[in-house]
What does this fold into?
Amino acid sequence: MKFLDDNSVFFSETAVLDGLIIRENRLPAEVFRSQMCGFLMLDFDRFQFREYFTYLARFVEKVRESRFRFACLDPDPVAYYYQHFRKYPFAEMLPQASPDDYVALLRQDPDGSPADALAYRADVIVFYSHSKRWVVYGERELSLIVVGFQDESLVEAFLSSFDRSWLLSAEDAVENILPLVFGDPRNMTTRENIGKTLVLNYGGQRSVIQKS
It folds into this structure.
């Protein structure tokens, strides 16, 4: 695995992303551009674990895809990463790859700058494939990852690929994640407003997770 340094490939990948997500939007607003359903959530920090790669790779193989992509959108891939390190924080991944190589990629210090490793610096991340059938979108600020699918059959494939204890509904996230993000009582109104919008845009999957 390696980060992208080819300009034409980078702009081709951003065109694919622009067909999947609304890059200027942030949670709890709608971030998916195409029609998605069956939303599932995870704690943002999970993406740094080797197990995360194992589970996602298992899902990719189950839906009969041969590769998937990772992208960091914040810090800005051009103005920050390419400007400073002459590479883009995008990578193509094969499901047969080693989870250790995945973790090493995230912890790789670009040009001797450990603080800029994506495990610590990436604030908005996306995992996607050119099939455009699913998207994993995450934000560090809310400590949330949202997964969207083009059809319900993909939801079951995802559920059966991951450790179920990792998976959350929007309702679970409101109860278990947001209180940690907005722990100060002075932020209660903000937390409640974000929670309501999150459930409005991504809710309804709690019973699916509980059944599975």
